[in-house]
Amino acid sequence: MSFIRFLILPILLMVLSCHAQAQSLEAYLAAAQANNPALLENERLSAIAGLEVDMAKAAYQMPEISTTGNFLYAPVIRGVGYDNSITNGALYSAQLNLNQPLFTRPQVEAQAKNSLINQEAYRQNTALSQHELARQVSEQYIRTWQNLERIADTQHLLGLLAEQEQVVRVFAENAILSQSDVLFFTIEKENQQLALQDFQIAYRQGLAALNLLCGLVDTTYVELQQPEIQLKADTAGLSNFLKSYQLDSLLAESRQELSELKYRPQASAFANTGLNAIMLKDIYKKFGFSLGLNFSMPLYDGHQRGLARQQMQLSQQASHGQREFQSKQIEQQRLMARQQIKLLDAKIKTVQRQLSDYETLLKFYRERIARGELSVNDYMNTIKSFATAQADFTALKTSRLLLINEYNYWNW
Asked: Residue 213 sits in a domain of what CATH number?
């Protein structure tokens, strides 16, 4: 039995350490990217766009081969029926046909160009989806981590209250302080315990929302590591958000190029072989073949070509205007985030000094209570002010991380 315990104990310790291991933001980001169906869908669409080139080559460069068969019998009964000069009375036809487009290199090249732009557009959509998902996951992670910090702050406060409560109880038992002072500590502890439970519930809910966002099916309790998010280097006016407008412009030009090809001369060669007869007599002699060329060229289409060009130009102008507006919006978002981060940094330093002063003051007050020189009410007021400062500090740290996440989102 002792040998079994010797084996089981290390295993239990390993399991408990695994469950207690903190999870990082990077781990959740990786899970979100791996499980996001939108990213997989964009990859499939990009592959589909790549097949358009093969389809264009098959349509414009490869011969089309088909078989046809016809049987027609048009009798004239008592002088009533179709005119024989039209129907010949009957038709017996079975043929193998071939049609080969000619001079189609421009069509294939234009389709290949359009396909490449489409693939790049899908890759851009994938990058945008990944970037937006990273922003959402980071934001949810930061907000969930904030509740974990609140839990730690409240537990620290409860520790201070419990420690001081013991001192007050001793003084109350010796009639130096009253039982109401002990009750005062007890009530404040209960208030903080209720707050702790609220933060624990909020943290659990935040973890569940984070797992849902990342596509994870997991209800295990984990502690989140402090997010390490740094300001990214300024992109100096370059933005991946604006690439979409460039691709839209290229796609419009590519579609116009494909449309223009309809007005080029079209040529194809054809050939067929097989049976073609109107009478059963000597039908075995009616096997043969034919070949030839087809040519066509549009001459007038009601000015559709010019109207299509105007549409493309107007679309380009609208896209350019939207791009300029979006560029200004992006720059403004970055400036606002940087400005707010700078203001928060100054405020965080002030609150840090304030917390340090509160720690010193509380230590001094605990010594005075131990000597019976300070009222419990004064100590509790200081504790509450300290708790407020702690909450402010946690909120400021969270706001700073959220602003950095926001800045990095626009600075892309």
From this structure: 1.20.1600.10
